[in-house]
């Protein structure tokens, strides 16, 4: 999967939330959400199509995401882990805890999740 820039992520997010949409409807949504012009939205859509992040079907200029939000999130996390933490989940987790401002309840929930994960292995 290719790297997704912030503007492409905005288009993908609209599609993940709404499913297949006409490009004109995406443009209306992004004008409302972030103030983009129709031309800006169409430029980003074209870039997404070229990068195979979305598919576009004619007639009607119908757009659909090429993959799920979960798959994109997992890919981004993998890249983050490799590029900034040398593949170390422990270093990633420690940094996350330091910057996240996680509440005590959230920390307990993370501990429970880790414990359950370890018991399955």
UniProtKB/TrEMBL annotation:
* GO BP of this protein: negative regulation of DNA-templated transcription
Record keywords: DNA-binding, Transcription, Transcription regulation
Looking up SUPFAM superfamilies in the UniProt record yields:
Winged helix' DNA-binding domain
Gene3D superfamilies in the record? Winged helix-like DNA-binding domain superfamily/Winged helix DNA-binding domain (1.10.10.10)
Q: Which Pfam families does the record cross-reference, listed alphabetically? A: Penicillinase_R
GO molecular function: any one?
DNA binding
The UniProt entry, under InterPro entries, shows: BlaI_family, WH-like_DNA-bd_sf, WH_DNA-bd_sf
Keyword Protein biosynthesis among UniProt keywords = no
Q: What does the similarity note say?
A: Belongs to the BlaI transcriptional regulatory family.
Q: What is this protein called?
A: BlaI/MecI/CopY family transcriptional regulator
Q: What organism does the record attribute this protein to?
A: Candidatus Ornithomonoglobus intestinigallinarum
